[in-house]
Amino acid sequence: MLAKILEKVKEWQTELILALATIFIASLSFQAGKINTLNHLGVAQSAVLEASAPEDWSVAEATIPPTNTKSKPTTPNSPQGVNFQVVGSKNSDKYHFLWCPGAGKISEKNKITFAGEDEAKAAGYILASNCQR
Length: 133
What we know:
There is one protein chain. This protein is of the alpha+beta class. The chain has four helices and six strands. The protein has helices at 2-11, 13-41, 101-105, 117-122; strands at residues 45-53, 56-63, 86-89, 94-97, 111-114, 126-127. It has a four-stranded mixed β-sheet. A hairpin with a 4-residue loop joins strand 3 and strand 4 (94-97).
């Protein structure tokens, strides 16, 4: 039985290697695309190990600035320390992140652009319920 399997593997060796290489490259490309999207949005975070004593290791969350040169301003209240630009409408009290569906529905003549959430909140706007950080 094992001999028959090995014989088939040897017979199809080239095709198997090609198929495995294709799967590997496809999954690698997909992961690279996800990383690129996160960097484009300015969201990057990692865990940093801090040692208080040799036998006591703890994990702390740290914020890493985006690698692109167009970094966004940061504030302590925003997620991951990044303050994203938001838009609101003159006809509403809601604000939206640029990737939210509602942001694209606001006409240009009614659109108000804020430098971040803090500025929108100070103007009396609240986050739209269908918009997530």
